[in-house]
Inverse folding.
C-alpha cells in the first residue's frame, strides 16, 4: 500500500466511527499524552509534589 492509500483507508475508518468514536479516540490520545508527560516529569524529579506535577503537566499541555 502507498501512503496515499493508507491515508484514504484511515479517513474511511474515522468516518465509520462517527462523532462519538472520533471523540473517544481523541480523548484516549489526550490521556496517553498526559500520562506520558507525568511520567517524564516524575523520572526527571522523583520527589516532585503532586501539585507541582499537575502544574507542569497542565503548562506543557496548554503550550505554556
Amino acid at each position: 500500500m502507498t501512503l496515499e492509500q493508507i491515508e484514504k483507508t484511515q479517513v474511511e475508518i474515522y468516518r465509520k466511527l462517527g462523532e462519538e468514536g472520533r471523540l473517544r479516540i481523541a480523548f484516549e490520545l489526550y490521556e496517553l499524552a498526559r500520562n506520558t508527560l507525568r511520567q517524564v516529569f516524575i523520572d526527571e524529579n522523583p520527589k516532585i509534589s503532586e501539585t507541582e506535577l499537575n502544574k507542569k503537566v497542565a503548562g506543557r499541555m496548554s503550550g505554556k
Q: What stands out?
A: Residues 3-44 form the longest helix (42 residues). Residues 24-64 form one domain.
